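tool_call: predict_structure(chain=1)
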Amino acid sequence: MTAAKIQGRLLVIDDDGAMCELLDEALTRRGHQVRTARSVRDAEAILHREDVDAVLTDLNMPGQGGVELCAELHANRPDLPVVIMTAFGSLDTAIAALRAGAYDFVTKPVDLDLLAFSLERALQHRQMQEKIRLLKDQVRRKDSGDELLGESPALEKVRDQIGRIAGLDTSILISGESGTGKELVARALHRQSGRRQGPFVAINCAALPENLLESELFGHVRGAFTDARETRRGLFAEASGGTLFLDEVGELPLSLQPKLLRVLEERKVRPLGGTQELACDVRIVAASHRDLAQAVREGSFRSDLYYRLNVIQLELPPLRARGNDILLLAQSFIRELASRFDKSVTGLSEPAAARLLGYRWPGNVRELRNVIERALALTRHDRITVEDLPEHLQKPGGESSLPGGISDPLSLLPLADMERLYIERVLDQVGGNRTLAARILGVDRKTLYRKLKEE
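tool_result:
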């Protein structure tokens, strides 16, 4: 027997000791990890403490037999394929095994090559089911807003940091260039924290004048200032039990910084014009595109407030450092906006993809979304072309966003603007099921078939 193409952890069950030894030796020689059991009870003990990828069991054994075990595993472990062996190769026996959930059925005396082939198919089936499960989880996370779209190492690092710090009920400072998705990360931190059932409240500290910003943050009582006709709760009170996201906190006026510091230290807030302090239970996530450490040195930001906010710092990468995430994000925006505009635009042409990859994206993800929205509104084709892009993106050349001085973005792609690779990946993960693939890709089957013919 030659080495198996697909190897895994196998559990062999047979009350015949000689048969167990034969199968153990033959399957181990093919590269599998083999455990053997002489009864269903022994097998259940192994399954309780170890994980296996497939089960090979005899049909007729003293006590509980293979069909009963198969039915039990199919009910409790539907992802675990079971291959049944029997010396009674009748049609009725085979039907009973398959109805019990068996993946395959082989007869004794066992042809070792045929058995090995059946087990490899079973292992491949398990791998495919795991891929489909992971894909469904990714889609579910994306649909629920939990997914930061992208596969680059830079984004994976951010995901890892979010997972490690989200549960810590302390202040977090998100830094990074404008348009990198700081609020999206703040929401992810909130969703993965112990405060997920509480409110998420966001405010842009650069968007309001000083007097209105103070009222928005801390609230005011009736008559506190002109036009204060009624008492109003501030955002600290609104966010009680949840998370308050202070975007562009570096733009907070110096006169308000000590008031914010006091609230963070005392966990109490006094509304404008009020005489009583109110307890507030909020977690602060702040963000700034400015270098706050430099702002402290320049005297435009208080050092004590900086250290209070910057208990943990999370830095977001610019879009130009995320490689092919540019095309994944672009494709996601195309699907979303095409539905809104009721246009049958499905992707990017190869030259357009090259322009997107070669641009430095000073406005990051926000700029990319605006470019795609403009192009999709203007295009007359089913794919966005170079002519649909803004003028500064239509001309080749300029400063490349690619590492290592690579001048040709398509040298990183298999000549299909990433869309073909994405389709092939999805098809592979769903075992070639085109209906399921079309549903995941967000297109109808006719569109998918046409794209496959174009390859």
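agent: Residues 320-417 form a domain with the Helicase, Ruva Protein; domain 3 fold (CATH 1.10.8.60). Proceeding to next step.
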